[in-house]
Structures are given as structure tokens and as C-alpha cells.
Amino acid sequence: MKIHFREQYCSNGEEILYVTPDHQDTVVRVTLKGERPSIRKRFSIKRFFQHLFLPVGYPDSVSSDYLSYQKWDTLQAFCSTISGTLTTHAILKGVGVGSDAVNPLSATVTWVLKDGTGHLGRILFAWWKGSELDIDSKKWRIRADILNDVAMGIDLFVLPYYPKAATYILCATTTMKAIVGVAGGATRSALTQHHAIRGNLADVASKDSAQETCVNLIASFVGLFLLSYLQNQKILYGLFAFVTLVHIYANIRQ
């Protein structure tokens, strides 16, 4: 039996299914009477978060591997944001934030050049490899995330020790991250299309964005707490190495 749509009415516990029975082509409307509506009310918070972060009609409106994918995607997004918070701290120090030796104009020029090379990198990579990103999307996704980890590693481990070359280093790492943005965005579209089995591509994409935004928000606060609490640079380096390994592992398991 194939379920097409599901309607639920929390006030009386009634549930209506639109299904196609086995060996038939017609859609049948089946009404299920809820016997314990009080239990449904008890889980109203759970239902609220389900509506907030999951596509309408879940789990029948998405592919069977959706939940497994989202679990690992949540973990990799959390780790990536933690790493990004640590490297942002290093980047700001690299451009001279908090230093009297660097004037605001030079820091602004460095930032504009960094962003400019990133934009150029996005354009060139999209022209060079854009048509190939649909082929084996998972491999491109893993390559993109590994490249992103390498770029953040350079920002964290190399940039603080070569402040005079900060502009060149930031231009290089921003270009690498720009390539990641193109590859990651294109492959995510292919994966979203795979998960949307009811013609609900926009709904699946928007809920995926909501999930990632929530995870990034939580991870950002965790990263800020770690930066404030862990003052030892070696511990921060070890933390970055750990979350990077978990990030790569989660991407492989997706």
C-alpha cells in the first residue's frame, strides 16, 4: 500500500490517509479515528518542532534515507561551524584587529581584496567544473568539505605566524572557500531533489535550510564559549583537529 497524503486533526485525534492499495490504481480515502486525543496534546511541542524543521507529510513525503542523511548532515554542519568560529578569531587577528600597528584602511583593503578574489574564484570554478557537479554529487561534496577544512586549517595554523603575508594567505583561503560554496551548493541541490519524492522540492530545501541555520546558531554560541573558556592555543589546535576529523567522518557517512 502506497501512502500519498496524510491529514491529521489534533482536536479529535482523527487522521485521514489517501492511499493506493496493492494491485490497484485508484486513490482511496481512509479515515482513522484517534482513541486517545489527550496523548496527541501531550506531544504538541514535539509536533511543533516537527512542523518547524521537517517537510510537510514527513516521513511519507521524503525518501527512505532522509533521516539518516540529516543526522550526519547536522553533525558535520555543527563541526564545521565550530571550526569556522575558531578560524574567524585567527583571521581577525591576522588583519590586525586589536593591534595599534595596523590602521583601519589597510585592514579594509585586505578584507576587500580577500572577498574580491573569492568572488572571482566562484566565477572561474563554476565555469570550469559547473557541468560536472551533477556527476557523483557525494564525491564532490566530500572534496568540497575537505578543501574547506584545509582552508580553515591554513587560516588557523599559518596566518597568525605570517601577519605580513596576511593579504596573500587570506586571498588564497577565501578562493578555496568560494570553490567550496559553489560545489557544496550545487551538490546540495542534487541531494535535495533526491529526497523530495512528492514534488515538494521547495519544502524540503527550505526545511533543510531551517535545520542548518538552527545548528549553525547553536554551534556559534558553543564556539564563542570555547574561545572564551579555552585560552591555551595548543588546546584550541587540538579541538580544531578533533572537530575536523569528525566533520570529515560525518561527510563520508552521509
TrEMBL record:
Q: What InterPro entries does the annotation carry? A: RUS_fam, UVB_sens_RUS_dom
**What are the transmembrane regions?**
213-229, 235-252
Q: Subcellular localization, per the record? A: Membrane
Q: Which residues form the Protein root UVB sensitive/RUS domain?
A: 41-253
Keywords, A to Z, come to: Membrane, Transmembrane, Transmembrane helix
* Key word Transmembrane helix present: yes
- One annotated Gene Ontology cellular component of this protein: membrane
Highest taxon of source: Eukaryota
Name of one Pfam family that matches: UVB_sens_prot
What family, per the record?
Belongs to the RUS1 family.
Q: What is this protein called?
A: Protein root UVB sensitive/RUS domain-containing protein
Organism the protein comes from: Anopheles funestus
